[in-house]
Amino acid sequence: MINKGMEKALNGQINAELYSFYLYLAMSVHFQQTNFAGLAGWMRAQAQEEMGHAMKFIDYLHERGGAVTLTAIDQPKGEWPSVLAAFEAAYGHEKSITKRINDLMDKAIAAKDHATANFLQWFVKEQVEEEAVLDPIVMRLQAIGDHPGALYYLDHQLGKRGA
Ligand code: OFO
After folding, report:
1. 21 within a domain of the structure (yes/no)
2. What is the pLDDT of residues 95-117, one digit of tens each?
3. Which of 11, 34, 76, 113 has the fewest other C-beta atoms within 10 Å?
4. Cβ of residue 13 lying under 6 Å from some atom of ligand 1
Protein backbone atom coordinates (compact mmCIF):
# COMPACT_ATOMS: atom_id res chain seq x y z
CA MET A 1 0.00 0.00 0.00
CA ILE A 2 1.31 3.41 -0.96
CA ASN A 3 1.97 6.01 1.75
CA LYS A 4 -0.31 9.05 2.01
CA GLY A 5 2.34 11.61 1.09
CA MET A 6 3.26 9.75 -2.09
CA GLU A 7 -0.43 9.24 -2.90
CA LYS A 8 -0.99 13.00 -2.68
CA ALA A 9 2.06 13.75 -4.83
CA LEU A 10 0.98 11.26 -7.51
CA ASN A 11 -2.51 12.75 -7.53
CA GLY A 12 -0.86 16.12 -8.12
CA GLN A 13 0.92 14.59 -11.10
CA ILE A 14 -2.36 13.27 -12.52
CA ASN A 15 -3.57 16.87 -12.54
CA ALA A 16 -0.32 18.05 -14.15
CA GLU A 17 -0.63 15.43 -16.91
CA LEU A 18 -4.24 16.40 -17.54
CA TYR A 19 -3.16 20.04 -17.71
CA SER A 20 -0.51 18.99 -20.28
CA PHE A 21 -3.30 17.33 -22.27
CA TYR A 22 -5.38 20.49 -22.05
CA LEU A 23 -2.49 22.78 -23.00
CA TYR A 24 -1.60 20.80 -26.13
CA LEU A 25 -5.26 20.49 -27.05
CA ALA A 26 -5.52 24.30 -26.82
CA MET A 27 -2.46 24.61 -29.06
CA SER A 28 -3.99 22.14 -31.51
CA VAL A 29 -7.21 24.17 -31.66
CA HIS A 30 -5.21 27.38 -32.07
CA PHE A 31 -3.17 25.95 -34.97
CA GLN A 32 -6.32 24.63 -36.63
CA GLN A 33 -7.83 28.11 -36.43
CA THR A 34 -4.70 29.78 -37.79
CA ASN A 35 -4.42 27.47 -40.79
CA PHE A 36 -1.62 25.17 -39.71
CA ALA A 37 -3.42 21.83 -40.02
CA GLY A 38 -0.17 19.85 -39.74
CA LEU A 39 0.85 21.52 -36.48
CA ALA A 40 -2.72 21.05 -35.20
CA GLY A 41 -2.40 17.31 -35.87
CA TRP A 42 1.02 17.19 -34.17
CA MET A 43 -0.36 18.89 -31.08
CA ARG A 44 -3.41 16.65 -31.00
CA ALA A 45 -1.17 13.58 -31.02
CA GLN A 46 0.86 15.20 -28.24
CA ALA A 47 -2.32 15.83 -26.22
CA GLN A 48 -3.36 12.19 -26.63
CA GLU A 49 0.02 11.06 -25.29
CA GLU A 50 -0.52 13.25 -22.24
CA MET A 51 -3.88 11.64 -21.59
CA GLY A 52 -2.03 8.32 -21.69
CA HIS A 53 0.42 9.62 -19.08
CA ALA A 54 -2.44 10.61 -16.76
CA MET A 55 -3.93 7.12 -17.17
CA LYS A 56 -0.61 5.48 -16.25
CA PHE A 57 -0.57 7.38 -12.94
CA ILE A 58 -4.24 6.51 -12.30
CA ASP A 59 -3.65 2.80 -12.99
CA TYR A 60 -0.53 2.78 -10.82
CA LEU A 61 -2.32 4.37 -7.86
CA HIS A 62 -5.08 1.77 -8.16
CA GLU A 63 -2.54 -1.05 -8.26
CA ARG A 64 -0.94 0.23 -5.07
CA GLY A 65 -4.23 0.58 -3.21
CA GLY A 66 -4.10 4.38 -3.37
CA ALA A 67 -7.06 6.73 -3.77
CA VAL A 68 -7.36 8.72 -6.99
CA THR A 69 -8.62 12.28 -6.54
CA LEU A 70 -9.45 14.26 -9.65
CA THR A 71 -9.14 18.02 -9.18
CA ALA A 72 -9.94 21.05 -11.35
CA ILE A 73 -7.69 21.55 -14.37
CA ASP A 74 -6.41 25.10 -14.97
CA GLN A 75 -7.55 26.83 -18.13
CA PRO A 76 -4.71 27.01 -20.67
CA LYS A 77 -4.06 30.03 -22.88
CA GLY A 78 -6.08 30.05 -26.09
CA GLU A 79 -3.66 31.75 -28.47
CA TRP A 80 0.01 32.41 -29.07
CA PRO A 81 1.54 35.29 -31.05
CA SER A 82 3.56 32.98 -33.32
CA VAL A 83 4.29 29.33 -34.04
CA LEU A 84 7.65 29.82 -32.34
CA ALA A 85 5.99 31.25 -29.20
CA ALA A 86 3.70 28.21 -28.94
CA PHE A 87 6.55 25.72 -29.31
CA GLU A 88 8.72 27.66 -26.87
CA ALA A 89 5.83 27.47 -24.39
CA ALA A 90 5.53 23.71 -25.04
CA TYR A 91 9.27 23.22 -24.49
CA GLY A 92 9.18 25.31 -21.30
CA HIS A 93 6.22 23.28 -20.10
CA GLU A 94 8.06 19.99 -20.67
CA LYS A 95 11.03 21.28 -18.69
CA SER A 96 8.68 22.05 -15.80
CA ILE A 97 7.23 18.52 -16.06
CA THR A 98 10.75 17.06 -16.00
CA LYS A 99 11.37 18.93 -12.75
CA ARG A 100 8.12 17.57 -11.31
CA ILE A 101 9.08 13.99 -12.24
CA ASN A 102 12.54 14.44 -10.70
CA ASP A 103 10.95 15.78 -7.51
CA LEU A 104 8.60 12.79 -7.40
CA MET A 105 11.58 10.47 -7.84
CA ASP A 106 13.42 12.22 -4.97
CA LYS A 107 10.34 11.77 -2.80
CA ALA A 108 10.02 8.06 -3.67
CA ILE A 109 13.71 7.46 -2.91
CA ALA A 110 13.50 9.38 0.39
CA ALA A 111 10.49 7.24 1.38
CA LYS A 112 12.33 4.04 0.30
CA ASP A 113 9.33 3.41 -1.98
CA HIS A 114 11.14 1.25 -4.53
CA ALA A 115 7.99 0.34 -6.44
CA THR A 116 7.17 4.00 -7.12
CA ALA A 117 10.78 4.81 -8.00
CA ASN A 118 10.71 1.92 -10.47
CA PHE A 119 7.37 3.10 -11.91
CA LEU A 120 8.73 6.64 -12.31
CA GLN A 121 11.73 5.44 -14.33
CA TRP A 122 9.48 5.27 -17.41
CA PHE A 123 8.66 8.94 -16.98
CA VAL A 124 12.30 9.92 -16.44
CA LYS A 125 13.07 8.40 -19.84
CA GLU A 126 9.94 9.86 -21.42
CA GLN A 127 10.94 13.37 -20.31
CA VAL A 128 14.35 12.98 -21.96
CA GLU A 129 12.47 12.16 -25.15
CA GLU A 130 9.91 14.97 -24.80
CA GLU A 131 12.67 17.57 -24.45
CA ALA A 132 14.77 15.98 -27.21
CA VAL A 133 11.83 16.27 -29.63
CA LEU A 134 10.91 19.87 -28.79
CA ASP A 135 14.38 21.39 -28.58
CA PRO A 136 15.23 20.95 -32.30
CA ILE A 137 11.76 22.13 -33.37
CA VAL A 138 12.26 25.35 -31.39
CA MET A 139 15.72 25.77 -32.95
CA ARG A 140 14.32 25.25 -36.46
CA LEU A 141 11.57 27.79 -35.80
CA GLN A 142 14.11 30.30 -34.53
CA ALA A 143 16.06 29.87 -37.76
CA ILE A 144 12.89 30.08 -39.91
CA GLY A 145 11.69 33.37 -38.39
CA ASP A 146 8.66 34.72 -40.30
CA HIS A 147 9.46 32.97 -43.57
CA PRO A 148 6.01 31.66 -44.69
CA GLY A 149 7.34 29.04 -47.14
CA ALA A 150 9.54 27.45 -44.50
CA LEU A 151 6.74 27.59 -41.92
CA TYR A 152 4.34 25.76 -44.24
CA TYR A 153 7.02 23.20 -45.04
CA LEU A 154 7.46 22.55 -41.30
CA ASP A 155 3.67 22.36 -40.94
CA HIS A 156 3.64 19.70 -43.63
CA GLN A 157 6.56 17.77 -42.10
CA LEU A 158 5.24 17.77 -38.51
CA GLY A 159 1.74 16.99 -39.78
CA LYS A 160 2.95 13.49 -40.68
CA ARG A 161 2.85 12.64 -36.95
CA GLY A 162 -0.86 13.34 -36.67
CA ALA A 163 -1.74 11.65 -39.97
FE1 OFO B 1 4.70 15.83 -21.89
O2 OFO B 1 5.00 14.45 -20.68
FE3 OFO B 1 3.52 14.14 -19.63
O4 OFO B 1 3.25 15.81 -19.03
Report:
1. yes
2. 999 999 999 999 999 999 999 99
3. 34
4. no
Please check whether residue 119 lies inside any domain of the structure. yes
Q: What are 127-139's pLDDT values in tens digits?
A: 999 999 999 999 9
| Whole-Å CA distances, 50 to 22, 92, 104, 131 | 9, 16, 17, 14
- For 75, the 3-state DSSP assignment is coil
Residue 65 main-chain phi, psi, to 5 deg: 75, 20
Going 81 to 130 to 47 to 50, the CA torsion angle's sign is: negative
Q: How far apart, in whole angstroms, are the C-alpha atoms of residue 149 and residue 28? A: 20
User: Does any ligand 1 atom lie closer than 6 A to the CB of residue 93?
Assistant: no
Quote the domain boundaries for residue 100: 4-158
The residue whose CB lies within 8 Å of the most ligand 1 atoms, and thus the one to mutate among 53, 87, 101, is 53
Query: Residue 111 belongs to a domain with what CATH number?
Result: 1.20.1260.10
